[in-house]
Specification:
By secondary structure, this protein is an alpha/beta fold. It has an 8-stranded parallel barrel, surrounded by 4 helices. A two-stranded antiparallel sheet has the order 5-6. The relative contact order is 0.16. The chain has 12 helices and 12 strands. The longest helix is centred in the middle third of the chain and has 20 residues.
Length: 345
């Protein structure tokens, strides 16, 4: 099992807790990323939104791509998974940027391809916002161009959404055959796209038995395309305490949801702009990506047991959120990661 975490580019993960003591600043994320390498975390996911989805649109948020480039130069081991939305980036130009960052990081860049959901953000930044299945059709072409310019000496492409002529891209990415392409989604269009064109499937938080069903479904879809096996990751919000009562007390604190919170309107737009397999609750709203449904709340032994259940379900990567991030990552490393490593020796 690999342990990753969401980089807190929004200054936190709790929509109903105003100050989580983790500012959306370069100084904080740099310190966090460097320390995380020492704590046993192997990956950080750098989300891409130009507006703050968690704390409200007027709050600060860090740009994903410049942050990733900077982190590539000041870290040594950690995988930098950068979210990218095809509607915001021409594919050949993004391929050039990504290849350069991959060179800087010595092959540590990967991509999380996200088909956009936030209509207001697109409008505020002058980007066309398409309907759900149209966004996935665009993403399919976008991935074809990305792969083509990365893998070929000269590449031409003519599609509905993109056209390039005799593209030359040097240097190529350090990672071969290409940087890993992650993606998530629960609609039929998303699943088919991932099965055909991506390398790994990222899932919202859910119990291990539900995650096992999703993995089985994607494996069956993947088998139709004669590709290498997919990797699988799941989101989770972790609360680890010495006693179960302490963990439940913290859970109650963070799920005391107020609909007047600054991020509530953004959450409603996300619900309207995506297609989910399950209904979500106000408790799901309190942290993103249904992280609480993964059930990583309790004593170190309980959380370790739950993570083992995800491993048995076929999960390769757990993508975690914490609050406050640095302090809780220290706790998680000492109480879960290091114990698990000791048992594996």
């Amino acid at each position: 099992m690999r342990f990753g975490y969401w980089l807190p580019v929004f200054g936190g993960w709790l929509r109903n807790v105003e100050d989580e003591k983790m500012e959306a600043t370069w100084d904080y994320v740099k310190r966090l990323a460097q320390r995380s390498e020492q704590l046993g975390f192997g990956l950080t996911l750098i989300a891409e939104l130009n507006l703050n989805d968690i704390k409200g649109v007027s709050a600060p948020s860090l740009d994903a791509w410049s942050t990733a480039a900077a982190l590539a130069a000041v870290t040594e081991k950690i995988e930098l998974m950068v979210a990218v939305r095809p509607t915001f980036h021409l594919p050949a130009l993004l391929a050039k940027q990504a290849a350069n960052i991959d060179q800087i990081s010595n092959g540590r860049l990967t991509l999380n391809v996200v088909s956009s959901w936030w209509a207001d953000e697109a409008r505020k930044y002058g980007v066309t916002f398409e309907q759900h299945d149209d966004r996935y059709a665009r993403t399919a072409e976008w991935l074809d161009v990305l792969d083509g310019v990365w893998s070929r000496e000269q590449f031409s492409y003519s599609g509905k959404y993109y056209r390039v002529e005799e593209n030359v891209l040097q240097p190529k990415p350090k990672s071969q055959p290409r940087p890993t392409i992650y993606a998530g989604g629960e609609s039929p269009a998303a699943k088919e796209l991932i099965a055909e064109k991506c390398d790994a499937y990222l899932m919202h938080g859910d119990p291990p038995e539900r995650v096992a069903e999703k993995i089985s479904d994607l494996k069956a879809r993947r088998a139709k395309h004669s590709q290498t096996p997919l990797k699988f990751g799941v989101a989770g919000y972790a609360i680890v305490r010495e006693t179960e009562k302490e963990a439940q007390d913290e859970l109650r604190r963070i799920t005391d949801v107020q609909q007047s919170a600054a991020g509530y309107a953004n959450y409603q737009q996300w619900l309207a702009g995506t297609q989910l397999e399950q209904r979500v609750s106000l408790e799901d709203y309190s942290v993103s990506n249904r992280g609480l449904r993964s059930g990583l709340v309790g004593t170190p032994e309980q959380v370790a047991e739950r993570i083992a259940a995800f491993g048995a379900a076929g999960v390769d990567l757990v993508l975690l959120q914490f609050s406050p991030q640095l302090e809780e990552m220290e706790r998680f490393s000492n109480s879960v990661i290091r114990q698990a490593a000791g048992k594996g020796q």
